[in-house]
Design brief:
Layout: H1 8-18, H2 22-34, H3 38-55, H4 57-63, E1 65-66, E2 69-70
Domain HTH cro/C1-type: 2-25
Protein name: HTH cro/C1-type domain-containing protein
Organism: Pseudomonas savastanoi pv. glycinea str. race 4
């Protein structure tokens, strides 16, 4: 099977072409690669997002954005 490492811009282009969010494409690829279930993947994602939020990482990341783009 082929492997690739698309850039964020390429991921955005692919998501627009498929009419899906970049998160959905990454999630689908992760689900297939890890052989997990949708529920397990969603729970893992939610847990990791809560950890980032609790650590203040999301607030810090938002501070680095200007009009939804990195400064």
């Amino acid at each position: 099977h082929g492997r690739s490492s698309p850039t964020l811009d390429k991921l955005q282009d692919l998501s627009e072409a498929y009419g899906a969010s970049p998160l959905l494409l990454v999630g689908a690829a992760t689900l297939i690669q890890q052989g997990t279930t949708v529920d397990a993947l969603v729970e893992r994602f939610a847990e990791q997002m809560r950890e980032l939020d609790a650590a203040g990482t999301l607030v810090a990341a938002r501070a680095e954005l200007n009009d939804n783009r990195l400064r």
